[in-house]
Structures are given as structure tokens and as C-alpha cells.
Design brief:
By secondary structure, this protein is an alpha+beta fold. The chain has 7 helices and 10 strands.
Length: 428
Amino acid sequence: MEYTENYNLKKPAGTEPADIGDINDNMDMIDEALATQAAAHSEVPNVSTDNQTPTITEAETLTNLSPGDTLKVIVSKVQKAITSIINHLAATNNPHRVTKAQLGIDNVPNVATNDQTPTYNEASSLGTLISGEKISVAFGKIKKAITSLIYHLADINNPHNVTKAQLGLDNVPNVSTDNQTPTITEAETLTNLSPGDTLKVIVSKVQKAISTLITHTSSTNNPHNVTKAQVGLGSVQNVSTNDQTPTYTEASSLATLVSGEKLSVAFGKIKKAITSFINHLAATNNPHSVTKAQVGLGNVDNVSMCYKVGDAFDNTGSNDLLHAYGNVRGATSNTLRLAFPMRKLIPEGLTVNVTKVFLSSICIGSGGTVETENFDASSYIDTVSVHGNVIQVKLTKSGGWLKNGVTGDKVPQNTAVAGIMRAKLSFS
């Protein structure tokens, strides 16, 4: 543990765990130092607030207090320390990067007990289990015991070397087999022994019982029809983890996951979080209420421009909502010439493309307007030409332009007009 130079505050190393007691001790020492400073300056002259109690502005970085710091600097550093401590205490992502090796469990796999897969070799001989021995040793003994038991159960060659004397038959004469031990014919069905059964019948029943027992003990297809409910797993589906299909209802509001809560509740929260995140990513209505000042455009007005922004033309720029004046010229009333002035000369070789033209409000000198308000004249674009910094667009409407958009009421030829047009231009 290290300590600060001036106030002897505790500084835990990066590998040491955070101790609430140490943090509280530091806070008490800081509080006492601030109280001492406040007492020393209790007689404050009648000056502005910032010269008595500085405006609290949190420091950008976490640094120690230094002799000679003003109260304003001290408070800003303390504010940063408090914020850092609060954030640190709330951190649940292992802020000190503690490893399982530091906890003394570096050899422990990160799996549930039922999913652990111990490795072992079958013991060379049978041996009893010993408390405290390694799992690998214990499983080696268990495997040897199970293997031996399986072979033993299947052994019908008198593996225990039982003698007729041990069976109480030491007085049985050594005569022909059928007179001593009847020919063994396995019974067709498994039945109890009955008083009076001959040895031949008894042996046939026993043989049936043994065969049935051997078959039964080696059976791995659930011969007793045990159900999952009988072993306490009635609610468990017979699917792998990745194939499970939990049912849930989306939560009504965003909430953090809680350890130990039901999967249906957790998935409801997760679905709500994903839905909210997707909606948030798709939001185009400024969901964070970003202001133009926050993006460094506080002094920019929300208006359109009638020229290309920048000092040079390139192949990527486009201009929308360009404003200009025009008049009707020519021998007929079907031609309208528009002029769009640009801020600077248009370089030679640069192609001007006009894709949209709207007659916002073209007033006729004798009264009325050409066509209607915001009339889309894009389909009547005839020619586009460049003259210095002016783009000229010729609109031709066969049959003439309509006055106020009324059919049959045409704009007279050589009539002076004035107004605003809008066009969508691009350069290539």
C-alpha cells in the first residue's frame, strides 16, 4: 500500500482489491483537510463568490492535491475523485482484472459440475476409495471396479470356486450327471420355486432367473421404464442447450438482468433491450437531441444555398433549391428561360446536370402566375448552357404556358415575368 505525499491518502496498487474502509478513510482525511482550510479562511472579505468559494468544475483527470492549490482547484480534484470512486464502486466488469490464478483456482475449468470431464486411466487392480485422493485416481479405481463387476456378473464358471461341501452337498455321490444334477433346460418363463420341485425343475427355473438377471443387468434401454419425473426432471425438455426454445413475453420497460431470475424473465428483458436498441439505431429524429452547437455549427442558419459550397468544383457536389429570376422571350409563349447565378466561374469541361425544376412563384406583369404554385416543370427541360458563372435553363412547353394553370388561358407571348424558380443541379 502506498500513500500520497501531502495528505497521506491511501493509494492501493493496481493488483490490490478496492477496500471501502480505505476509501472512507481517505474521504475523512480530505473532509478534515477541507474543514481546516475553511476554518483558516473563515474571515472571508466581501468579494465576489468565485473568490470565496470557487465554482465547482470537475477536474479532467484524477490527480493528487498539491500544497498551494486554491480551494477551487481542491474542490475540482475532490469532485473528480468522488466521481471516480462512485464509478469504480459501481463497476461490475472486474475493474482490477483479477484472474482465477490470483484466486488460487487457475486449474479449475469454467464449466458447471455436471459438465466437467475428468480424465483418468483404469486402475491396474481393485482398490478401495480413499478420502482426499484425486478425482482422477478415484475414477480410475471406480472404472476398474465397474469393469470387474461386469465381468464377474457375466462369469458362469464358478468364479468364487464354490465347492459342493460349501453348498451342503458333500454327501452327493459321484454318479452320472443326470442322477446327480439333472440336465439343464431353461424354463420358458420366470416363476418362483415351489416346494416339491425336483432339482431338474429347480435348476431350470434358476437358469431362467440367472439368464433374465444377466440380461437385465446388462440392459441400457431403461428396463424399469423410469420417467424423468421420477428422477426430479419432469420439467426438463430432451433437447440440447442450443436447441432449447424458452417462451417469454417482452418486458414492458428496460431493466438490468438479475442473477438467479428465471430464463423467461431474463429473455423478456433481453428482447426489450434488443427491440429498443434496434429502434434506437433506426431512429432518424435525433434521439439524443443533438444541437447544432454540439456539432460545431452553432452559428449556422438553417437556410439553403444558391451556389456550390467550397472554393472549387468537384465531381461530388450537388446544389438543391437554387433561386433565380426569369422571363418569357421569343416569338411564341411556349419558351421560358431561367438563369441560375453561381458564386464563381464554372470551370470549362465541367458538365452541369439539371434534373429537377420547380416554378415556385412566377408572376406575370399583367397579373396572375405562370402555371400554379410550385409547378413541377422538370419534364419541359429543353437545353442547359453555361455562361461564365450563370447556368441558363431553357424550358419549352408545347402549346404554351398556362396562366394560373387554367386550361385554355395561355400566357401571352413576349410577356414580362419575374419570380422564383428552384432547381436540382449536379456537376460531373
